[in-house]
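Example 4.3 (complexes with small molecules)
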Amino acid sequence: MSKILVIGAGGVSSVAVHKMCMNADIFPEVHLASRTKSKCDAIAASVKTRTGRDVPTYEIDAEETPALVNLIRKVGAGLVVNLALPYQDLPIMDACLEAGVHYLDTANYEPKDEAKFEYHWQWAYHDRFKEAGLMALLGSGFDPGVTSVFTMWLKKHKLKTIRTLDILDCNGGDHGQAFATNFNPEINIREVTAPARHWEKKPGETGDWVETPAMQVMTEFDFEAVGKRNAYLMYHEELESLSKFNPEIERARFWMTFGDEYIKHLTVLQNVGMTGIEPIRYQGKDIIPLQFLAAVLPKPESLGETTKGNTNIGVIATGEALDGSGEKTFYINNICSHEAAFEETGNQAVSYTTGVPAMIGTAMMVTGAWSGAGVFNMEEMDPDPFMEMLNAHGLAWQVAELDGPVGF
Ligand code: NDP
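Answer. The structure with NDP bound is encoded below.
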């Protein structure tokens, strides 16, 4: 399994490939393929300069399953790390099944014509992966990914049950641009313009999603190493897996910070129809407004050099303490510096905080620390070896007991 084929050549892939090549003992051979080969070559050149390692590169449209099967066989890969876009998840999973190799990604499948973040399409592959004796690990980024592992670490070491869970994602970085997204603009804008949803369940009942309009519910939170920021209630895919694998949770919410400038620009773009995903006819051709907008916005991988400041992403969980001392609240988080991330890998912290966990999830599979046959979410695995690697590979975390549950 130690021969890896990474698909996609954006910011997240760049970080993951750099970090894999910095750990030759776990990853003796890393190959990189994407739609635009020149982007793979640029990553390979940076890796060569920084680590001295060679990364063979290939051009592939990952939605062309037969071509991808051929590439996997040609490379002799044992594990495909999907760092392309969520649209490619299912064709890449199909190719892995056909070629008989393991699979990992950082974001759940989304159909192109509907902004819907749900795991059911990928969970439906469970039996096929199981029968083939292959493992597919879903969502090994930061959120989802580390936030899921943080929660399960609290559940293993601090809390017997979790009553309420709040995920707080703050990017306190300033890139000096009027408006830019810190990861793929199309996926980012689809995510933030979708209605907010959070999980609520009364004790003894089955629970359900509570929907509110996008970017309407807001709270101010004082983030260490960043300061006070407005955090907005949003839907995020790990809420689905966290509430599935922790059925006792009575309320699970996800909050992300946005500055006033970001909201002002996004509101205008939305009001004029630029964030739409329905095709419109333009000069005799069908174009999708959001894809056109993404093409004119700054590329996330170009923001690394100018972005200053920190990210601070973590989980606050309240529940019954493991030691029987009653209800307790813990906050577990990571602070990541944009400048340090750029110095190490040439990418800003949002790519770094996703690419490092992608490397660690892959390491869990390669080393056998995490194993299984079927499709798995991060919540189903032992958090300890993953948490140890976070500390050792650039994403140190801290945990603190708070006075009581969140007041918002
Ligand atoms: P980018 O847009 O920077 O990179 C995506 C890459 O995928 C590009 O190189 C693109 O090619 C390539 N690609 C797109 N379509 C295809 C295709 N059909 N075949 C082959 N390659 C293709 O995105 P990011 O690096 O910012 O994000 C990568 C992934 O990480 C996304 O799925 C994103 O949702 C996820 N993510 C997860 C996070 C988490 O915490 N879990 C956080 C942030 C991101 P081209 O260069 O030609 O456009």
